[in-house]
Amino acid sequence: MAGGKGTRLNSDIEKPLLPILRRPMIDYIVEALLESNINNIYIAVSKNTPKTEEYIKCYKRYYINKNIYLIKTSGLNYIHDLNECIPYFSEPFMVLSCDIPTIKPKIINKIITQYHIIKSKKAHVESLCVVVKKDIYPSNPSIVMDGYIPLGINILSPKYGEQKEELYIIDEPILNVNTLEDKNLVEKILLE
């Protein structure tokens, strides 16, 4: 998901292109996906992120044999844009926000494996929401759900409306970059 306004950053730079250690933040996510077990990457852009769209078009040329596709959404809000993406999928799909540059391929693979384990035990579960305990989250979260921070990583079924969801709690240092303070903290984490 790379179509939001990123208003909390107070920056003229589109959020996906925010430099993290001199590289656009979205590079970290795309590269982690390319090194994971994910087959196809769909990047949702909107009228809010025209420079990101152009950047991805150039980026695709660099990864010429990779399956990277653009989805144009309206940019109204996260949920609306996500619903506009659903018709592109016929089976469960992973959603990642463009603001989690500390994501690693092994974490992505671990999440996919956990989803399949849960589905094998609980067939009625349709989606997975990846969270971390609030007390180990290294910054000030924008959303807290019963002591957990959603990380902007989900696996969803390709259907509209509410889905039966299971939480998957991880203890990895994943941080959403919503402010310039978060950016500084992520850079410190990546340097370590």
UniProtKB/TrEMBL annotation:
<dbReference type="InterPro" id="IPR005245">
    <property type="entry name" value="CHP00454"/>
</dbReference>
<dbReference type="GO" id="GO:0016779">
    <property type="term" value="F:nucleotidyltransferase activity"/>
</dbReference>
<dbReference type="Pfam" id="PF12804">
    <property type="entry name" value="NTP_transf_3"/>
</dbReference>
<protein>
    <recommendedName>
        <fullName>MobA-like NTP transferase domain-containing protein</fullName>
    </recommendedName>
</protein>
<feature type="domain" description="MobA-like NTP transferase">
    <location>
        <begin position="1"/>
        <end position="116"/>
    </location>
</feature>
<keyword id="KW-0808">Transferase</keyword>
<dbReference type="InterPro" id="IPR025877">
    <property type="entry name" value="MobA-like_NTP_Trfase"/>
</dbReference>
<dbReference type="InterPro" id="IPR053669">
    <property type="entry name" value="AdoCbi-P_Guanylyltransferase"/>
</dbReference>
<dbReference type="InterPro" id="IPR029044">
    <property type="entry name" value="Nucleotide-diphossugar_trans"/>
</dbReference>
